[in-house]
């Protein structure tokens, strides 16, 4: 009876030991797997600090090569335990330690990030029926005050990410700039910053050169463009979002910086927006569709004349032509249409014939204006195919898209629903050039400020000395 109990105790002790051993090997195996996984991910996502690790390993290699480790054993009186038999393993274990120490750190920080993001994504509604949320792959600083968190997209449409933006921001105490989707890789990059977007950016006409203009400011840097890079602009957004204010700044900046640029300002909402530019030399303010048609026709004729000049002289563009001697002075022209839909949809008393002439002129300016220095800025609340000819739209290479009322209108302008999710702050916009979208705050220039900047040009003759140019970085912003 006692024997049986002893046997039982022995076998249960053995079983206990087996379990402990099994648990030990299981956790060693698991840790090795997790560490190796981090190393593979670090290489594939290029998040591993290769240089630092390599320097660490090299330093330790030299340390062992010089047998300095033996001194350390001796200092701690452990000379007799020195691992002579397993020296190879012992040495490589320590030499490679920067790599696995880094990987272990990654395992812990990933687990922490996963737990944190799981609760944030759940609150934000990014949770499927099985309770799964998007899995973070890494989170790292990419420079210029910007961070990138890559997550596995999961079954969630991008719309859901945009809706979750406010939750992610408040959960992590960050400001999300952008969500970028990589459909092939099934991943979403969350681009964010720790500083807020400025709620107001002061207007500045201090650009680096004549054709440059300030588009706005992101959380960290001012964004500028010029009429060579973006010769024609589309300014779209719902009512009150900041279109006319942006255009006011653009015209003022060009007027102050260039002493030759000519302006045709067409305001089809009654002519009030451009009233402040009246009586300025080089500026024509056109308040109705009848006069707009005539002006556009004149610009079109001038464009055709310049195209002919280019051909005759074998010049490739306006600058090329200007550089040829004895050529008349050809001035750049900026044609601005506030509420372009009025031209494409009608609505005023203009005849269909007149509208057709205006549309044809706009279309030609959009197609050929770049080469001959005729630039177009079109603003509209309604950016659909009827309100702006799609062919014209393709030639409007720089797009400022303010807040949009719905997904369809946002898609029409920037091929993304993001403009619906912009915050309500006037002046908050997305700047699109090529495929790149940048969220920014456009500069704020009040009517009074614009008037006082331009007053000196109204009373006197045109000031032919160019204003002193400063860097575009010298403007203020309020957060
Ligand atoms: N960049 C900005 N920064 C701060 N406030 C702005 C900015 N842009 C516009 N606002 C504010 O928003 C108001 C409306 O702006 P604005 O008239 O430019 O809008 P809009 O898009 O032209 O509207 P609508 O389509 O009705 O003409 C301005 O009076 C101004 O107070
Ligand atoms: Mg307006």
Short description:
By secondary structure, the chain is of the alpha/beta class. It is built from 15 helices and 17 strands.
Largest sheet: 8 strands, mixed
Q: What radius of gyration results from the CA coordinates?
A: 33 Å
* Count of discrete structural domains: 3
Question: In total, how many beta strands?
Answer: 17
Q: Extract low-pLDDT stretches.
A: 461-470
**Quaternary structure classification:** single chain
Please characterize this protein's 3D structure.
The chain has helices at residues 2-44, 50-65, 68-75, 87-95, 97-123, 158-163, 165-172, 243-257, 289-313, 318-323, 341-345, 352-372, 390-395, 407-414, 447-459, and strands spanning 136-143, 146-152, 175-182, 187-193, 200-202, 212-217, 222-226, 233-236, 262-267, 283-286, 333-338, 374-380, 398-402, 428-433, 436-441, 443-444, 477-478. The protein starts with a helix and ends with a strand. By secondary structure, the chain is an alpha/beta fold. The chain folds into 3 domains: 20-123, no CATH class; 124-193, Alpha-Beta Plaits; 200-478, P-loop containing nucleotide triphosphate hydrolases (Rossmann fold, 3-Layer(aba) Sandwich), CATH 3.40.50. Bound molecules: adenosine-5'-triphosphate and magnesium ion. Adenosine-5'-triphosphate binds next to helix 8.
């Amino acid at each position: 009876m006692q024997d049986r109990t002893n046997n039982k105790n022995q076998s249960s002790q053995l079983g206990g030991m087996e379990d402990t051993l099994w648990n030990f090997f299981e956790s060693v195996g698991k840790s090795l797997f997790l560490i190796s996984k981090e190393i593979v991910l670090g290489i594939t996502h290029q998040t591993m600090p290769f240089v630092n690790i390599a320097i660490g390993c090299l330093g330790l290699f030299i340390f062992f090569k010089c047998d300095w480790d033996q001194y350390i054993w001796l200092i701690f009186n452990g000379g007799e335990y020195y691992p002579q038999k397993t020296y190879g393993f012992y040495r490589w274990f320590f030499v490679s330690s920067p790599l696995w120490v880094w990987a272990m750190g990654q395992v812990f920080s990933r687990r922490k990030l996963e737990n944190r993001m799981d609760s944030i994504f759940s609150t934000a509604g990014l949770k499927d029926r099985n309770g799964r949320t998007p899995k973070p792959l890494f989170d790292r600083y990419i420079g210029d005050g910007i961070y990138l968190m890559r997550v596995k997209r999961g079954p969630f449409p991008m719309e859901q990410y945009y809706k979750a933006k406010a939750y992610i921001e408040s959960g992590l105490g960050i400001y999300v700039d952008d969500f970028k989707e990589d459909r092939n890789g099934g991943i979403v990059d969350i681009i964010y910053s720790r500083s807020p977007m400025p709620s107001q950016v002061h207007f500045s006409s201090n650009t680096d050169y004549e054709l440059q203009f300030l588009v706005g400011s992101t959380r960290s840097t001012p964004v500028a463009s010029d009429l060579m890079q973006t010769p024609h602009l589309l300014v779209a957004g719902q009512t009150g979002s900041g279109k006319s204010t942006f255009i006011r700044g653009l015209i003022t900046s060009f007027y102050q910086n260039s002493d030759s640029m000519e302006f045709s300002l067409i305001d089809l909402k009654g002519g009030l927006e451009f009233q402040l530019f009246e009586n300025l030399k080089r500026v024509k303010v056109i308040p109705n569709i009848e006069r707009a048609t005539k002006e556009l026709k004149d610009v079109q004729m001038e464009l055709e004349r310049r195209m002919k000049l280019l051909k005759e002289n074998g010049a490739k563009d306006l600058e090329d032509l200007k550089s040829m001697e004895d050529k008349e002075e050809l001035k750049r022209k900026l044609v601005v249409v506030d509420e372009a839909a009025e031209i494409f949809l009608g609505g005023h008393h203009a005849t269909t014939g007149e509208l057709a002439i205006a549309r044809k002129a706009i279309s030609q300016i959009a197609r050929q204006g770049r080469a001959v220095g005729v630039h177009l800025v079109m603003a509209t609340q309604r950016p659909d195919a009827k309100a702006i000819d799609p062919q014209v739209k393709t030639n409007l290479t720089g797009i400022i898209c303010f807040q949009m009322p719905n997904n369809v209108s946002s898609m029409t302008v920037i091929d993304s629903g993001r403009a619906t999710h912009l915050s309500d702050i006037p002046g908050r916009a997305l700047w699109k050039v090529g495929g790149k979208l940048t969220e920014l705050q456009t500069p704020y220039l009040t009517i009074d400020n614009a008037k006082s900047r331009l007053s000196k040009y109204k009373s006197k003759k045109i000031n032919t000395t160019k204003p002193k140019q400063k860097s575009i970085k010298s403007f203020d912003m309020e957060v």
